[in-house]
Design brief:
Elements (H helix, E strand, L loop, with lengths): L23 H8 L5 H9 L13
């Protein structure tokens, strides 16, 4: 049994929609409302994604 304050979420791991030739930074720009690279890098850092990784392809 979960505590009443716990929220259960689901994240689909279907990657069929991803463009594997796209750079990670550009992919994040597409799926977020972030308009600047700084905002994208800040959001990525929350998921422990470092700057160099954002320059690679998906």
């Amino acid at each position: 049994m979960l505590a009443k304050d716990i929220r259960v979420g689901y994240y689909s791991q279907d990657f069929g929609e991803l463009d594997m030739d796209m750079v990670v930074r550009d992919a994040l720009h597409e799926v977020t409302n972030s308009s600047t690279d700084q905002e994208v890098y800040r959001a990525a850092a929350q998921f422990l994604l470092r700057g160099e990784l954002l320059k690679t392809t998906v």
